[in-house]
Specification:
With 549 residues, this protein is of the alpha+beta class. It is built from 17 helices and 16 strands. Strands 5, 6, 7, 8, 9, 10, 11, 12, 13 and 14 form a ten-stranded mixed beta sheet that branches. The chain has a three-stranded antiparallel beta sheet with strand order 1-2-3.
Length: 549
């Protein structure tokens, strides 16, 4: 592949594209476009030297293609030898979060516990296995026992040892959090100028047994199968602690006092409560009378007051970028003030509103609305056929009403509205904080599905302790990877890239990477790992992973 510049003699404009050559049926040389980049005059406004920039991208395409060709040739050779069914596959992307796992000194904790309990198996291998699986395969509701051989680390554990080790880890949860926080501060300095507490409650539950009789016995033994949890993080989005919210009246009655206690205990100068009302009806935002407590609220743009909606639709923007636009203003609005004596007072307060318009979000919302219309029209057609009413007339009437409703909603598609008491922050800072916190919430939602580790053998308390530990550590590892990586991806995208970075065993002791991308290469380099596209021995792979601490 090479970079091709095509000049239109009528307009005089030059177009850049990545093309590759091939021969047609008659044997004549042809070219085909692999990726289009755009017109040179437009690209010069975004890049200092577009030709040099896209030449590097084409070189990366060639590198990825060469790796894929090597994999294809190797697999073809295995098929010729009728050995494809014996090809072993392992994940290599785990090496990135595993590097931070060792830097946090989690291994030393479990080795000390192993010596204290006089265990004959490696307790650290048990906890490491479950943590890395929660990072790479968070939504897979499968037992960790079936995937213990997907990593290059030796795992000679039996199923009984894994289950016993997980239950033992739960008993040392308090010590685990203290050790993790202490070592986290050695490789990452928390920004305690401003902390964020996500008020959206996460419900952690137990996996029910498939057998109905056994499920009834478990429900009787564990009458409360769920636990509510909130997440506290610093100004950079790094999780500091997961807080249990067992009291259902905490939000309405004792929230100000509880948050002030958390702020002082964590050493935060200011604590901002984050709540998301994007999918909820419009209601007065919650603010605090305590000057050291703030609020950051995501509001439903379609249900905002008329004055705010008119302002959002104005064409004046503070900043305009390729993918998004942003602006802000301060406005006095009705609020609910939570006071120190636990009472709630309706009043007026000045909040800073930040409006963000994202093209990608607008396209996703419009596609979702179109799919919903198609589904509604099909459902309505079936109803009218069964009722023997004039189908065409009714459909036209309903379609006209839907079109009017959609035209009103499409005006605000792609708009995100944020209200906050943090008036000292700029609009881009507020938008970045909100996006970072939403990414963290998505990570928690993805890492918290049921842990399927024979729950019938665990008490409710031990099971939930283990669940908290694993999910919290998975979030910390993904955020460390994100903060130290040059690629601007959210933690979920990073986890997806790492889960696809696999190796196959092409011969007795030769391993070849089957997925190679620029993002994966950047993630590996961020921790000091340098894998090439050439086949590697098992010893070379393990030596690379072990050398990065």
């Amino acid at each position: 592949m090479y970079l091709k510049s095509s000049t239109n003699h009528k307009t005089g404009r030059t177009y850049l594209s990545c093309v590759y050559g091939y021969r047609d049926i008659e044997g004549k040389s042809r070219t085909k476009t692999y990726r289009s980049f755009g017109y040179l005059d437009e690209l010069e406004q975004r890049y200092k030297d577009p030709v040099a920039h896209f030449s590097e991208i084409v070189a990366q395409f060639n590198k990825e293609q060469s790796v894929q060709e090597k994999v294809k040739e190797s697999l073809i050779g295995l098929r010729r030898q009728d050995r494809v069914h014996r090809v072993a596959q392992k994940n290599l992307g785990y090496s990135v979060p595993y590097t931070y796992y060792r830097r946090l000194k989690v291994e030393s904790l479990w080795k000390n516990v192993q010596q204290k309990e006089h265990l004959v198996y490696d307790l650290n291998s048990v906890f490491r296995l479950l943590t890395l699986l929660r990072v790479l395969e968070p939504t897979q509701m499968v037992t960790s026992l079936r995937q213990k051989d997907m990593f290059f680390e030796r795992s000679e554990l039996t199923d009984e040892q894994i289950l016993e080790g997980l239950e033992l880890c739960a008993h040392y949860s308090g010590r685990f959090y203290r050790v993790l926080r202490r070592h986290l501060e050695t490789i990452y300095q928390p920004d305690l100028e401003r902390g964020f507490f996500n008020l959206e409650r996460l419900y952690f539950g137990l996996q029910a047994s498939p057998d109905q009789n056994l499920r009834q016995q478990e429900q009787q033994a564990r009458p409360q199968p769920t636990m509510q949890c909130g997440c506290l993080c610093d100004a950079q989005g790094m999780p500091l602690e997961q807080l249990k919210l067992e009291d259902r009246n905490l939000v309405s009655d004792r929230l100000p006092g509880y948050l002030e206690h958390v702020r002082q205990e964590q050493g935060l100068k200011r604590l901002v409560v984050v709540s998301d009302l994007q999918d909820q009806p419009l209601q007065p935002p919650l603010v605090f009378s305590n000057p050291k407590l703030g609020s950051l609220i995501g509001l439903n743009a379609h249900q905002a007051p008329r004055e705010i909606r008119d302002w959002m639709l104005e064409e004046s923007w503070d900043e305009e970028h390729d993918d998004y636009r942003i602006k802000s203003r301060s406005l006095e609005v009705p609020v609910q003030i939570l006071q120190a004596d636990h009472s709630i007072r309706d009043d007026q307060a000045t909040l800073k509103f930040v409006c963000v318009f994202a093209k990608q979000v607008a396209e996703e919302q419009r596609r979702a609305q179109q799919d919903h219309i198609v589904w509604q029209m099909g459902d309505l057609s079936q109803q009218t056929l069964r009722s023997q009413k004039p189908t065409a007339q009714l459909l036209n009437k309903e379609a006209k009403a839907w079109r009017n409703q959609i035209c009103q909603r499409e005006l605000l598609d792609g708009y995100v509205l944020i209200a906050t008491t943090e008036d000292d922050l700029t609009a881009p800072q507020i938008a970045a904080d909100y996006r970072r916190l939403r990414d963290l919430h998505r990570v928690l939602l993805n890492t918290k599905p049921y842990l399927v580790v024979a729950p019938s053998g665990f008490s409710r308390q031990d099971y939930l302790k283990l669940h908290f530990m694993v999910c919290y550590l998975a979030c910390v590892l993904l955020n460390l990877v994100k903060l130290n990586s040059p690629c601007d991806y959210n933690p979920l995208r990073i986890a997806e890239e790492l889960s696809e970075f696999d190796c196959v065993n092409i011969s007795e002791n030769r391993w070849l990477i089957t997925h190679w991308s620029k993002t994966a290469e950047q993630l590996l380099k961020s921790v000091g790992l340098y894998f090439s596209g050439e086949p590697m021995t098992l010893g070379e792979v393990r030596h690379q992973i072990a050398s990065c601490v």
